[in-house]
Amino acid sequence: MEKMKKEIHSFQSEAKQLLHLMIHSLYSNKEIFIREIISNASDAIDKLRFHFLSHPETNKSNIDFQICISVNKEKNTLIISDNGIGMNKNEVIENLGTIAKSGTKKFINELKNKTEEKSNLIGQFGVGFYSSFIVSKKVIVRTKSINCSEKEGVLWESDGKGKYTIQNIIKKETGTEIILFLNDSEKIFLEEWKINNIVKKYSDHIDIPVKINSFNEKEKIYCLKQINRAKAIWSLKKSEIKKEEYQNFYKYITNDTNNPLTWTHNTVEGTLEYTNLLYIPSKAPWDMWNRENKYGLKLYVKKVYIMDDVQQFLPNYLRFVRGIIDSYDMPLNVSREILQENKIVSGLRKTLTKRILSLLNQLLINNPEKYQKFWNEFGLVLKEGIAEDFQNKETIANLLRFTSISNNKSEQTVSLENYIKNTKKEQEKIYFLTADNYLSAKNSPHLEFFKKNNIDVLLLSDKIDEWMMNHLTEFKEKKFQSINKTDESLNKLIQEDNSNQKILEKNELLKKIKESLSDKIKDVKFTNKLTDTPAILVTDSSDMSTQMAKLFSAAGQNPSPIKYIFEINPNHVLIKHINNITEEKILKEWIHLLFEEALLVETGSLEDPANFIFRINKLLTQNIFST
User: Fold this and answer.
1) Average predicted confidence (pLDDT) for the chain
2) The domain containing residue 270 runs over which residues?
3) Are 536 and 494 contacting, i.e. CB atoms less than 8 angstroms apart?
4) Is residue 510 part of a domain?
5) Taking burial as the number of CB atoms within 10 A of a residue's CB, which of 25, 49, 62, 151 is the most buried?
6) pTM of the full predicted structure?
7) What confidence category does residue 115 fall into, taking pLDDT thresholds of 50, 70 and 90?
């Protein structure tokens, strides 16, 4: 076969940016490049194993799967090879020249803006191969796919500066060989002791032997020597596994540089036989809210790797969990389609969900500080469980954390259990307020009565909160009550002062307000909930709340306009002032001004803010000339 001429390609623009960022020392710990390449090699071998399971006719020999490392100090090269599934030309271009991931631009911006944890971000994004350019002036990849003949091998070469070349070569063996031409300053990575330490640190528990071409001083020959344990960590007894080994295995399967917060390791025998090793990360991934982001557990069947990112084993609200499930009951040829309706999967899902919730509860009891770290990272996701998981709703509710009036800080640290313990004897309900953000909630006039009477109110300002509270109706037999809505139970707490109210009723102020705002409000009434504010808007108990209407609007739906109940503070100086106004036009201006003020506080916006400002200026001007 005639050797194909080299084709010159340019990296995809996003790949160029990543290479530039990485070459300029984004990895504070350069040795991670060995972990990344070994991880890719391990994946390639796992894929070939699965290929043989799916296409047994292609498995013509018993392959001794292994990852090999060799060094050449004279040429300053480090070579890492595997006998995995390999790549054809198109796969090489797709995998080594392009980053075909959604959210790539967002990811690059995250890298540019963050000064810390950049290596962690790169690992999570799954572009670890590019880390080889941190220590190399040139990288060559020689590979051949299981589906290609020996004449269809591919050679890829690049210096990481924007272009790469590609050409066909003859390669007999299936698999991939990566040749790193190290920078003169990185010769430490040619030392056998250094490579041994790195492999033991990061790759000891992958179930594929990692071997190094070591020089035998006694026999004066080179021979392959295994340097990792090569035994699946989850198959070992807990007593045989050190804490550091659990942590390193987590980093291996997740590409996370942080240690996990906690984990659970169980082997179950009975109706279902399986082993699970599940981790709670300490940091949320950068793309946790990307709908196209893959998540889920690694699936093994009888220690044979089947697939990544299996979502069926855990509900969506536990998508932050990482780890493996090794089933002894499922068939080796299981597919994602079969998993959708598999009874074994359904049983495992229920059990694993309870196990994770129990793990979080134990973390809460045994280490509240660690649990608070978990909540700060993943609390928003866990809140989804209130609506998604009716069976475990009470357990999830016990794990929820809130901020409140008494908490007096934006960090969510208040449990529902503690809230109930601190309620007043006459308090029938758990009171809460929803708002756009913490400051809006904290300064809401709806809180004036509660602050004055030392009654705590939960302050909910996450976008998901309003939706969540539609499903969380009670806790420990106490019902939840939004203070943005009308509620008769509040009357029992309010000591009414009706002296000013009676004066205003004589002048029929409520009637005048209702006539003036007839097309805008549902009703108008006096309230003793307010101290410093003249008026507020509330929704009827059966009507859609303000925050829910915002959620619908954000989703592209157009909810019907809310007709509010206008509540007037009879003791406020402004209300007393407008009660004495006899000129109808001026009275209407004041009524509309008070309504728009209350509407601005309640919704955060007005349809016609310019008219609102004009009305304020007009009334201020009248007041100046009248004095």
Assistant:
1) 87
2) 234-372
3) no
4) yes
5) 49
6) 0.76
7) very low
Q: SS3 sequence, 64-132?
A: CCCEEEEEECCCCEEEEEECCCCCCHHHHHHHHHCCCCCCHHHHHHHHHHCCCCHHHHHHHHCCHHHHH
Long-range contacts of 111-114 (CB under 8 A, 24+ apart): 111/18, 111/21, 111/26, 112/21
Whether 389 is in a domain gets the answer no
pLDDT (tens digit per residue) in 220-237 = 788 899 999 888 899 899
**Structural domain count of the chain:** 4
Is the model's pLDDT at 1 over the cut of 50?
no
Residue 471, exposed/middle/buried by CB under 10 A (0-12, 13-18, 19+)? middle
Q: Is the pLDDT of residue 101 over 60?
A: no
Contact 414, 403 (CB under 8 A): yes
Burial of 627 (0-12, 13-18, 19+ CB in 10 A): exposed
Contacts 24+ apart (CB under 8 A), 257-262: 257/29, 257/32, 257/117, 257/119, 257/120, 257/123, 258/117, 258/120, 258/282, 258/283, 260/322, 261/363, 261/370, 261/373, 261/374, 262/359, 262/363, 262/370
The whole-angstrom separation of Cα 291 and Cα 112 is 23
Are 586 and 550 found together in one domain?
A: yes
Residues 412 and 328 reside in one and the same domain: no
Q: Do 201 and 246 belong together in one domain?
A: no
The answer to whether residues 286 and 124 touch, using CB atoms and an 8 Å cutoff, is: yes
Structure tokens at 85: 């599934």
DSSP label of 436:
S
Q: Select from 316, 59, 7 the least CA-distant residue to 167.
A: 7
Rounded distance, CA 334 to CA 54, Å? 10
Question: Which tokens hold the place of 408?
Answer: 């007096």
Determine the Cα–Cα distance for residues 593 and 623; give it in Å rounded to an integer.
14
Pick the closest to residue 406 from 457, 478, 473 (CA basis).
457
Q: Give the pLDDT confidence score for residue 100 in this predicted structure.
A: 46
Please give the average per-residue pLDDT across 545-569, as a whole number.
88
> What's the CA gap between 424 and 469, in Å, rounded?
22
Contacts of 586 (CB under 8 A, 6+ apart): 619, 622
Nearest Cα neighbor of 427 from 398, 389, 391, 456 is 456
Nearest to 278 by CA among 267, 269, 286: 267
